[in-house]
């Protein structure tokens, strides 16, 4: 069978390829010299499959796409309180190189602008690391996200350092506000090294997929950062990842994302997929022109917008009936599908209507596909209250979708593999 | 059985009740006179169930919570292009009453700040409506979201108009930029009337649930605005709904939301639930103190954050085996659960490994709970390509989860109710 | 004899005449329709002579040039404290139509920007005037500055009112901050009427000369506003009169000035002259292109810069000698020229060296041309201390340059007409 | 005779002495350790007399008071065009440490804010100086203004450098905009050294007097910078010298001034006097509290406001009469006082009325005290036109107030010592 997803990717790439608008970043020769016609895209699923098309194996510097990953590392290494004390989470509505410090505290508004990212770099690893150790910690962390050992482009790094006037200005300003505590120059150097890490489009897709997969790299299986960190990072990417085009992106594409000045662009759709594209020509906001077009197509074709309401599902309560009669009668609620709060609420309502005369009640989970935490707790609470009302409660759960069920104070359930056994 | 959800709501309300911090809005006597101890909360499910606790039936003025709904009406009535030409979608990072116009065009940055909301009011209904007709169009629309005929608080309205200096200033500024085209005063009056609509916490929960339910009111069943409009509105609420605390809210609560100065607060979680709270004391951002606490609890307890990765589900491919042998052998892919892009990608991969010697292939959808658009198209493409490779393809779909399946050019599928029949 | 000053004016006018750069204000048809080639200039001396060349008798609307005069009227009518409480004196460094309010108080930064000028209009006349009376008060005041009854251009006024969106916005904003206390619309209308007063270039020169002449109209002799008010107005004109080109003007021209959008431009050099020019084409700051050129020439040719150090003068102490000998000897200090602090200091030093044996001392003021207040007090103090040291002190003051001299506690002077009488 | 000026100074110092409000600058220990009770004041006349009272011989660091002098040096060393290309002259209306760069060019708004002053430091001396040579050039220049060799406080300098984060930030920003062209750090170090120069209040008064005296040090007689430079510096001091209190200062005190964070404050009144005060406690604008009070007193007592209209002088035309009759008759215009444009204009008018029958005309300058350039040219033009009209013109000028008079094309004058000789 001909491969479907590569075919799709190739088709979309072909559609955007002719667009030669925009300009590659030209502030350092190394970036200006990039082949502006390069075009690549990659999908990485949370199952660990990676699909790349076009120039998806060409290396380029990660640049600002390192920002959300370094933010994740800092949150992991120092904890939320330490990081939030120094870098906010508010959209700035400004261009990437605006200083955007809170007027009273000097705290950068968010970790996606340079001021925030420089501060975040200084917050990675333990406090007592020296600059080289800190760079190694970041490189190690980015490599863990990518699932392979990454390396730096020393030429780009050196060249960036020569024109790092604005970043040095920002760092000195941050030092003046006490947001940075050490010598600003090595921190900027470390940040510039972080931005000079070489990645391919495939790497970026895997890195994004690691975010989409609750922080676990779908290739290596490593838990790179905790789940709570990922939620924070994705939220900030959604609001602040695309600079002053953040609102357009949030409405039209709707995927937490980050762009880099070398032409990379990533998107991470929680629980689904990591996407990356590469095309060096940038629009006036500093985002890759064809990268944005690709994401618009992906989002539109595949319904990836986070505010997209999922397809209407079958009712969670597949059937509700009484088997047998008399004292041995069994009331059976057959459930199905994925159960979240909304589904659990439906189950609660059905349960409330069970007459007290129906002593035996079975909740059949055989066809339940997934159940989230709040729904699991609600189902167990249903079981507990039914027990308190004098019912005998059975969970039909042959595949242990609720492992080790404990309805709590006064509740009691009997787990069985099939309700046929109860009749 | 004692009701679970009201119990939960009552418990959380009890926890936040003692917090008397913050101050009710005091700029007009009518708001200052509100009982600051009022506290209510309501959930409205997309299935149409509404749970209210505390003062959830007390009426108060909707104020800024009208903004996302009026925005939805304007997008419906005039189309995206007309509205986007006059009001942007970028977060302002500023307080609600900042002017925040784009420096070149005078376009308000987003529809959640007053400048944007006044402009949006002027864009509701047909262009040739007179001011009274426009107000009626908005009132009618808000009523459709709530599922009952709403009315205005004339005293609040008159009082607001007396101190509407800043809004008049903004409107004249917008008129100067050509963003407003008529006399600014009646537009501000219309906007003030829009803000003076009386709602209960239950009403607001239903209004939010209508957004969560793709624009269809779960009580009345009316499609109030199109799905695409809802996606736009929710995206903007997520980035801009909570003023200069938008980033904190996005990271900590993670629900598209909007607050009003009378103490109301709504959140809409796509595909799940509408939530509303009411407590008049406000924090320095103008958001209800206890309302914010309630939402933090709800989000945390119930895993409602939009960036929360859903619970790991059972594998989409439940089993993959061959039944029988020889030419009559049947390869069966038993699928289960809810299938989105990620699940469909898994199916594609399995299908690619089917040897051409296995002529007969059955895709068993019996235990599939839901399938979204892109996944449906991918499954049909699998069927088409298998056909082209010489396979006979069967869809086992007793409940027509893929109604009227058409694999397209060169593809052919036979739908059956059970694969037992094929063996 | 052929007239010198008109010749000079005509020559300079001829030099700038060919410059057709810039554009007349075009926001209302009445201004756009002005003949852009008009060119006039006028000097008015504090002695009451007026020299006009070119189109110096053509009427045009005063526009923003009314601002310093209305400010003078408000300071006179309400006092410094009342006015300063509502309008600051800080340069804004911004364009004329920027709102520029102090962030905390809402006070306009200065009376030369529109926000300040609208507020100032509301502060002219008694507090209880109705809008028409206030306009009449301003018109009467401007007429007093000009020395003839002025009138309004009703067409310009009506047309301005139609497009006064931004000024209405500003006024409503000021009302919101409590800076304006009445209905904003009639205040803006009054301000627009103030701006629509018709003046000729000659009128403007006389108005400026009234400021240069300590507030006394050199034609009519009327004291239009007090001297202290004039000092305040001139200071503010120097810092804020030329919008965001104020610094360029202050350094290059150095004359307190104000421009108007109809093409007028005035400058007032304290104690010397009022100058006005008229040429409708404006530069990007909103200042008349050829008007600015004319002032640059005037300032440069005539040494009118306020920071220009006056020509080195003859020594104040013309001679210091002793006439006669023995007990009848007379020590004579012959003074000359204009005496300010610096001259008086020189006199003090000479006096300190008078030996106590020289009993009789004459201060000869015959050739003193002027003496300012501080110098007068210092000379009298010299007299007093000489008396205390046992000297007999004579003032030779035939023209009473120090009328009614009183050296104060313990001092005594004898005034004579000529020191010859003393020998 | 008891000295008058020291008495006056002592009296005013005594009046402000009890005011202990404000706080000394505390950002470095060396400044915080200053005795906050220090109080000194000094006057330096353009005649070279210096009066000091209180702690006027205590040394402290010059800090920002170095800015106008370094600006003067840069203008002298590089020319107006080079300096104006890099530093503007517009008031910023902002605090001293605001960055205040023009948004397009990155040019600091004026040389009195730190961004401008750092740039100005880099523009002193020849372009090819090394950092140490540049510091020496500035030190040499400041010493020339003070009239004695100054030296630096190395402890303050070192301490300032340790906390120079903000200035380093500004310098890197300026480097990014190409306003600075070398390595920012040594430029900031040089600027910090410039600010660490030790001066006494007397030194500052002499430095200010040098500005008041057209750039010529009244003690040493050296022309430190050209006159045109002084005019520029004084203009900028007037608009921008007192930070965000510039407008208050301009209206209330009205003397071009500059304050320093160590407590110094200078004012230079063109053609009259240099004033300096020293008191370390600062107000919220960073200006010395008692220094401001002293200047308010000085300005008010002594009429030093630049917009103060000078005292009404005697008429320039003392008399106008005809002596003798017949062909030998002589028309005599007896002039007196100081003659500027306004006086010359009066002379012109008198001259225009001379009938052609009065052949012989004498302009008697015996009692003229001073005549400025434009007036001199106008008087000579009068002579020329009278000649052309057939008159014989005599200048009675015994003291050569118009040396070497040349009325130009067609004019002819005869200089005599007394008009008696002509009759």
UniProtKB/TrEMBL annotation, chains A, B, C, D:
The organism's place on the tree of life at top rank: Bacteria
Signal peptide: none
Record flagged with keyword Hydrolase: yes
Sequence ranges assigned to domain STAS in this UniProt record: 332-396
Top class in the EC scheme: hydrolase
InterPro entries: Beta-lactam/transpept-like (IPR012338), Glutaminase (IPR015868), STAS_dom (IPR002645), STAS_dom_sf (IPR036513)
Annotated GO MF terms: glutaminase activity
Gene3D superfamilies: DD-peptidase/beta-lactamase superfamily (3.40.710.10), STAS domain (3.30.750.24)
Annotated PROSITE patterns: STAS
Subunit structure, as described in the record: Homotetramer.
Name assigned to this protein: Glutaminase
The organism of origin for this protein: Streptomyces xiamenensis
Source lineage: Bacteria, Bacillati, Actinomycetota, Actinomycetes, Kitasatosporales
Gene: glsA
């Amino acid at each position: 069978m001909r491969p479907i997803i590569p075919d799709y990717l190739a088709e979309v790439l072909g559609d955007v390829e002719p667009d030669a608008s925009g300009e590659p970043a030209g502030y350092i020769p190394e970036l200006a010299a990039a082949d502006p016609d390069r075009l690549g895209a990659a999908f990485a699923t949370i199952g660990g499959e990676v699909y790349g098309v076009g120039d998806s194996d060409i290396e380029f510097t990660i640049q600002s796409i390192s920002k959300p990953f370094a933010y994740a590392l800092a949150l992991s290494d120092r904890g939320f309180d330490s990081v939030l004390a120094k870098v906010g989470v508010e959209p700035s509505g400004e261009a990437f190189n605006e200083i955007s410090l809170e007027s009273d505290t000097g705290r950068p508004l968010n970790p996606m602008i340079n001021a925030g990212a420089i501060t975040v770099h200084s917050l990675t690893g333990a406090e007592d690391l020296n600059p080289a150790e800190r760079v190694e910690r970041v490189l190690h962390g980015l490599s863990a996200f990518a699932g392979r050992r990454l390396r730096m482009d020393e030429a780009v790094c050196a060249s960036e350092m020569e024109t790092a006037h604005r970043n040095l200005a920002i760092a000195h300003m941050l030092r003046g506000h006490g947001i940075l505590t050490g010598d600003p120059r090595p921190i900027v150097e470390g940040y510039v090294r972080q931005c000079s890490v070489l990645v391919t489009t495939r790497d970026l897709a895997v890195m994004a997929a690691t975010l989409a997969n609750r922080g676990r790299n779908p290739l290596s299986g490593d838990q790179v950062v905790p789940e709570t960190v990922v939620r924070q990072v994705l939220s900030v990417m959604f609001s602040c990842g695309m600079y002053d085009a953040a609102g357009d992106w949030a409405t039209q594409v709707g995927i937490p994302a980050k762009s880099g000045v070398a032409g990379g662009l990533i998107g991470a759709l929680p629980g689904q997929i990591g996407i990356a594209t590469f095309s060096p020509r940038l629009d006036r906001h500093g985002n890759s022109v064809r990268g944005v077009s690709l994401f618009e197509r992906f989002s539109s074709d595949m319904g990836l917008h986070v505010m997209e309401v999922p397809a209407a599902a079958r009712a969670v309560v597949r059937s509700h009936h009484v088997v047998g009669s008399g004292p041995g009668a069994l009331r059976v609620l057959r459930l199905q599908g994925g159960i979240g709060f909304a589904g659990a609420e439906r189950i609660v309502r059905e349960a409330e209507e069970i007459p007290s005369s129906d002593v035996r009640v079975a909740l059949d989970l055989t066809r339940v596909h997934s159940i989230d935490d709040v729904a699991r707790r609600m189902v167990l609470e249903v079981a507990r209250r039914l027990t308190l009302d004098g019912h005998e409660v059975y969970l039909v759960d042959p595949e242990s979708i609720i492992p080790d069920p404990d309805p709590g104070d006064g509740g009691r359930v009997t787990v069985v593999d099939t309700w046929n056994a109860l009749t």
